[in-house]
Amino acid sequence: AQKVTQAQTEISVVEKEDVTLDCVYETRDTTYYLFWYKQPPSGELVFLIRRNSFDEQNEISGRYSWNFQKSTSSFNFTITASQVVDSAVYFCALSDYNTDKLIFGTGTRLQVFP
Amino acid sequence: DADVTQTPRNRITKTGKRIMLECSQTKGHDRMYWYRQDPGLGLRLIYYSFDVKDINKGEISDGYSVSRQAQAKFSLSLESAIPNQTALYFCATSGLAGTLSTGELFFGEGSRLTVL
Fold first, then answer.
1. Mean pLDDT value of segment A36-42
2. Which of B27, B43, B89, B114 is the best substitution to test chain A (most A C-beta atoms within 10 A)?
3. pLDDT in tens, B7-23
4. Which chain A residues in 43-102 lie under 8 Å from chain B, judged by CB atoms?
5. pLDDT of residue A52
6. Which of B108, B113, B110 shows the shortest CA–CA distance to B5?
7. φ, ψ for residue B84 (rounded to 5)?
8. Which of A15, B4, B61, B62 has a CB 3.0–4.6 Å from the CB of B108, allowing a cystine?
9. DSSP string computed for A58-114
10. Which chain A residues have a beta carbon less than 8 Å from that of B40?
């Protein structure tokens, strides 16, 4: 069975701190996609990144970076120099390759204080 | 205008009432999904559809039904709403049938349902 675990329910940091959100997944598929979504207080889901299972290169986008390690089935998300606007719930998700069904983790609520 | 539109965005209703949440999309996608979000539980799949004649149950389909009226429209119904169906509901779309999966879902803005 496929599963995504986000063990950190809530994280609080002070602005400018770096923060890493953990994501561990389980799947028997050899081809799959991993995602991170952001849900700000307004409620919509904002797509952040998609990663193909064949591409283990880490990715950096501005203050955001992602570390994908198949050996540990992890896809962690780091925000560098956090800002108040980063306060949101962040979801990691795993895609079923055949159906595009997304299996979501339970989310990590990040609070960034000024 | 949003590519995936959900109506209503907010609804308060009473136990036992029939409720329909509607989703329409302009992305030309064949695949459509309904998810439910509860605090601390993430998003869970209720139903999904690959085309107009295809309906599939997700992990929490009990108490819900769906209708795929057209390629662009996918409605979720609660025949007799109960309080534990109070949640935020998301519609999503992805891809074209017969094409390689890109894995990415496109979400609507959500419909907040409260059942009293």
1. 93
2. B43
3. 999 999 999 999 999 99
4. 43-45, 47, 50, 52, 91, 95, 97-102
5. 87
6. B108
7. -80, 5
8. B4
9. -EEETTEEEEEEGGGTEEEEEESS--GGG-EEEEEEEE-TTT--EEE---EEEEEE-
10. 9, 106-107
